[in-house]
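Record copied across here:
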Amino acid sequence: MPKVSIIMSVYNGEKFLKESIDSILGQTFKDFEFIIIDDGSKDSSKSIIESYSDPRINLISRENKGLTPSLNEGLKLARGKYIARMDADDVATPWRLEKQVEFLDSNPEIGLCGSWAIIINEEGEKIGEYKLPTTKKRLKRVMFWHNPFIHPSIMFRKEIIQLVGFYNEKIKYAQDYEYWSRIIRIFPGANLPEFLMKYRIVKKSMTRKSNLPMRWEGVKIRMKYLFNL
């Protein structure tokens, strides 16, 4: 069994997909499986994935179902002790998996682990930084106000699924925020104070149309988190 299962959902991600996949296959930590869900892409995403011969890649290609069902499909297929997330337009540093595995191995009380990230634009140029809270106490407090974890930077223990279940498929825009809010009630979380990701901001990824529903989902999650603490 691989120690880590990496889950990526792809929908029309051809522009940055190869760079993202290469950053995972080039990791210093080698003991992983790479589950890639092609969520009904209409571009060349599937062909790009199929061009790789690395046996650690497990490609699932089917009709479009959306991000949250795709992530849950990946979780059900995962065999690793740890589960890591990755997005098709972001870039992992070569030592990302190694650092997170070492941290979780050394801190069995921690359930999920993220990291800081360099923010890049569509050209790959640095435009900012995400330095998020790192201690479990601070993270638990900040969780009420906003999501203190970068979704594609996360690695968590597979055993968590048995306790809290899967992503909530009724939530479209903030499925990660809601999932972490359930996990952190049982297991403390942490962010490594290192830049282990390059997080890409793509213009079309945030539209005015989706902004209001996203904010409303965030409000509902915060209220649910507050009254369940």
User: Anything to note?
Assistant: The domain at 4-228 is CATH 3.90.550.10 (Spore Coat Polysaccharide Biosynthesis Protein SpsA; Chain A). The chain has a mean pLDDT of 89. Residues 208-228 form the longest helix (21 residues). The chain is about 35% helix and 25% strand.
